């Protein structure tokens, strides 16, 4: 794809009914606030990034913040062999969204990670597969009803997929407490929006204590989340685990699946190839663990979507001690930002076609997909690597297989607008309106 120019950004926002969707739209012409970035400003961001090189620093209030785009350095930080890097502390607003493992440091983190690891082992994942396919069966059944006699139906698949991934986490994590988990997910969706409104309107320490309508609602949500007693686990434990999993696992997989359906609508030839593979391996039967582990085309597609529309767009770490990275010596307390989304789109690493959807680039494996060095970090890496990555891939594959078995889909020519924006994860700002056709 050619570099984004003022006119291409302007025309890319509304994709329209024509075959223009066959090319991959520019990425992302949007400001984190959700407002469309005027094309000249987006161009400016690109210029600053290319002029500044792969490592540059800015101030985050009084804290120096260094952007690191060199995959070699990113790997060094994530591997943390020196032990000199740590997790950046969450702001009070961030902590209100998610605590638990993701917010712990040092010994407490290591202990909790050890306790949680076994829950994500292959044998445990195999046991979760029936819950994945039951939830997906509900989703597909619902869509079959909507499609009805007409044979096709148009809907925004994003909230549908959010409900699906919420159901999966609720069932997998809470079993019979599933309804309680579900309510907390609904509250978390509202809480995320309120907190990001607060962050975007300028974060002033202490402001969250003022009795504004937004702050009052945040408090009311917290009261409702922590208010009920639950046998077995303490209420607070249920709530904190649920909030973490909502944050870490529900939203990420739902946007992954949403972008996958969008991209497969833009590239019907890959949709056909994926369906052929699924039907060849499973027919119309429920996917099983071994079959899912051996899918090739579906895996290539998911990797390429994770590269182009990486759900977690950046990772932050902090220097604990004086440490040399590349040619630069950093003092303790420097915030290191690893902008995964930019690394995944860097033409120096991925070639001139970096912005194009080309799942075949992963055909020889992740290590050979980019030039010279590994530059694919959707799940982070090293000791902090996402604990749920296999869970996420198994869930996404199950859902994609069951959807492809029953439906073909295309973008709604009248309602779909391609507008990736950042609101914690990379989300479709105007939804993902697709037309489903029953096969
Ligand atoms: C496509 C889906 C997902 C993506 C892209 C993703 C990505 C990530 C990333 C980038 C991190 C940060 C690691 C770091 O701090 O360096 C992370 C951490 C984490 N993720 Fe995921 N994640 C996904 C799905 C899931 C799922 C399904 C779960 C749980 C069921 C999960 C649970 C966690 C937890 C608990 C952490 C914290 C790990 C720790 O601090 O030790 N994630 N994830």
Automatic annotation (TrEMBL):
Binding, heme: 386
Subcellular location: Membrane
InterPro entries for the chain: Cyt_P450, Cyt_P450_E_grp-II, Cyt_P450_sf, Cytochrome_P450_Monooxygen
Chain spans, region Disordered: 1-38
Gene Ontology CC, one term: membrane
Cofactor(s) the protein needs: heme
Annotated keywords: Heme, Iron, Membrane, Metal-binding, Monooxygenase, Oxidoreductase, Transmembrane, Transmembrane helix
Gene Ontology BP terms: lipid metabolic process
GO molecular function: heme binding; iron ion binding; monooxygenase activity; oxidoreductase activity, acting on paired donors, with incorporation or reduction of molecular oxygen
UniProt biased composition (Low complexity): 1-20
Family: Belongs to the cytochrome P450 family.
Listed name of the protein: Cytochrome P450
